[in-house]
């Protein structure tokens, strides 16, 4: 029965035209791609244990999640070794449950692209008739630097990786912000400049404050800090020039810069941080995007990278990279057996420097909660877990209604 399920999942995937759109390209370097006819790397793995063993209370064993990844993920270090832009592994548990792991090449594909890909696949599985024919890459091409433009200055294309990422290995911690806690955070974050903070903004401001406090404990003093949020440019263009179906890595990083090194400012810090986050995203919409639409986007891209490079020339700066996967609809994905009991980020026991100081936020499978997957150095992670201010809002234990149903079924 389980093997049949994996085969059905594969057959539905093969019908999705989105596969053709997202996998007919090969990344040469940081700026160029070529067309090819490669498809999705699809593997099936049999797991001897039951799914409940992986998700047992009080915490899911996220350090084991990397075992469920495809054997040749598309983000392997050597570009020429990447077999596909998307790789999928269907894991068959002894109890009959399945876990689907989707990996993608982030140089070319963003999370908005992947979420549409998965939803297209799901629509086919449930016979809703959608096959991804609205997907398109061509409309987005003209917005970014083209071959006719002069090359980017040496090393400028790598400025994000070289400035926003911290060296050294880290670890992953997962915190759950229940709806009641988010409501309190939104009240605390309200100000004259931001009278209506979103859930993502409120959680972002709270976590940024906590992470700076953790850094102060570890390093002995408060450092100036920047917070970069991945912004989906499809939603920032007015009038709307790109549909949600546009394929590519069509994101840009907003940059909020907190320069104050005073540590005893109290609750007003959180409001100020939320204001900085809101204003940095508005700056993308009102300043960066209009420039992007001129001259193939070359000048806007170069200027933005130069500005980021200048900001990050301060070696005392403490950078954090946030991204939100909320409101993407993935918890409602249905491959024919109902909605998934859980949608998560990739877990591991530890992470390399390319994934440190990163926070991923996503919708919880239950109610209106938000999960935050925080990737920090091990010293910072240990301090964050002990922090009483964090535990008031973000819970570490994994408690949910679906778990009780799953165990009793």
Spatial strand sequence of the major β-sheet? 8-7-9-10-11-6-12
Largest sheet: 7 strands, mixed
The amount of beta strand, in percent, is: 15-25%
Q: What's the gyration radius in Å? A: 21 Å
User: Structural class, from helix and strand content?
Assistant: alpha/beta
- Rounded average pLDDT: 76
| Global outline | globular
User: Share of helix among residues?
Assistant: 25-40%
Distance between the termini: 18 Å
Number of extended strands:
12
Topology:
Blueprint: H1 2-14, H2 17-23, E1 25-27, E2 33-35, E3 41-47, H3 51-54, E4 86-93, E5 98-104, H4 111-125, H5 138-141, H6 159-164, E6 170-177, H7 179-189, H8 199-219, E7 225-232, E8 251-258, H9 268-292, H10 298-311, E9 318-324, E10 358-363, E11 370-377, H11 378-386, H12 388-391, E12 394-395, H13 401-408
Helix pairs in contact: 1-4, 7-8, 8-9, 8-11, 9-10
Task: List its traits.
disordered C terminus, 409 residues, three-stranded mixed beta sheet, alpha/beta, 13 helices
Write a brief structural summary.
It contains 13 helices and twelve strands.
Notes on the structure:
With 409 residues, the protein is an alpha/beta fold. It contains 13 helices and 12 strands. The chain has helices at residues 2-14, 17-23, 51-54, 111-125, 138-141, 159-164, 179-189, 199-219, 268-292, 298-311, 378-386, 388-391, 401-408; strands at residues 25-27, 33-35, 41-47, 86-93, 98-104, 170-177, 225-232, 251-258, 318-324, 358-363, 370-377, 394-395. The strands form 3 sheets. It has a 7-stranded mixed beta sheet. A hairpin with a 6-residue loop joins strand 10 (358-363) and strand 11.
């Amino acid at each position: 029965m389980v093997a049949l399920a994996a085969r059905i999942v594969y057959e539905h995937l093969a019908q999705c035209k989105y596969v053709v759109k997202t996998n007919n390209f090969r990344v040469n370097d940081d700026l160029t791609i070529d067309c090819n006819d490669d498809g999705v790397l699809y593997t099936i793995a049999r797991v001897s244990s039951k799914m409940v063993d992986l998700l047992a209370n009080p915490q899911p064993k996220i350090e084991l999640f990397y075992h469920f990844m495809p054997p040749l993920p598309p983000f392997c270090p050597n570009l020429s070794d990447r077999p596909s832009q998307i790789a999928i592994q269907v894991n068959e548990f002894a109890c009959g449950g399945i876990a689907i792991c989707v990996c993608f090449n982030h140089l070319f594909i963003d999370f908005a692209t992947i979420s549409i890909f998965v939803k297209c696949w799901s629509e086919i599985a449930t016979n809703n008739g959608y096959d991804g024919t609205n997907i398109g890459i061509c409309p987005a091409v003209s917005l970014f630097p083209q071959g006719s433009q002069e090359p980017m200055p040496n090393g400028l294309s790598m400025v994000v990786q070289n400035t926003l990422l911290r060296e050294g290995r880290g670890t992953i911690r997962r915190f759950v912000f229940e709806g009641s806690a988010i409501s309190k955070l939104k009240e605390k974050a309200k100000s004259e400049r931001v009278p209506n903070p979103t859930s993502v903004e409120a959680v972002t401001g709270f976590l940024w404050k906590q992470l700076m406090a953790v850094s102060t404990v570890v390093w002995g003093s408060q450092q100036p800090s920047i917070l970069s949020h991945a912004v989906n440019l499809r939603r920032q263009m007015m009038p709307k020039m790109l549909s949600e179906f546009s394929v590519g890595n069509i994101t840009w990083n907003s940059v909020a810069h907190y320069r104050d090194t005073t540590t005893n400012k109290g609750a007003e810090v959180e409001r100020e941080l939320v204001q900085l986050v809101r204003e940095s995203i508005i700056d993308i919409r009102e300043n960066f995007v209009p420039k992007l639409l001129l001259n193939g986007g070359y000048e806007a891209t170069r200027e933005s990278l130069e500005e980021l490079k200048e900001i990050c020339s301060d070696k005392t700066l403490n950078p954090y990279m946030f991204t939100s996967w909320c409101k993407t609809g993935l918890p409602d994905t249905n491959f024919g057996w109902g909605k998934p009991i859980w949608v998560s980020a990739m877990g591991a026991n530890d992470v390399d420097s390319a994934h440190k100081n990163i926070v991923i936020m996503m919708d919880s499978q239950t109610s209106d909660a938000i999960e935050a997957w925080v990737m920090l150095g091990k010293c910072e992670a240990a301090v964050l877990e002990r922090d009483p201010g964090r535990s008031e809002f973000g819970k570490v234990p994994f408690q949910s209604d679906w778990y009780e149903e799953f165990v009793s079924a």
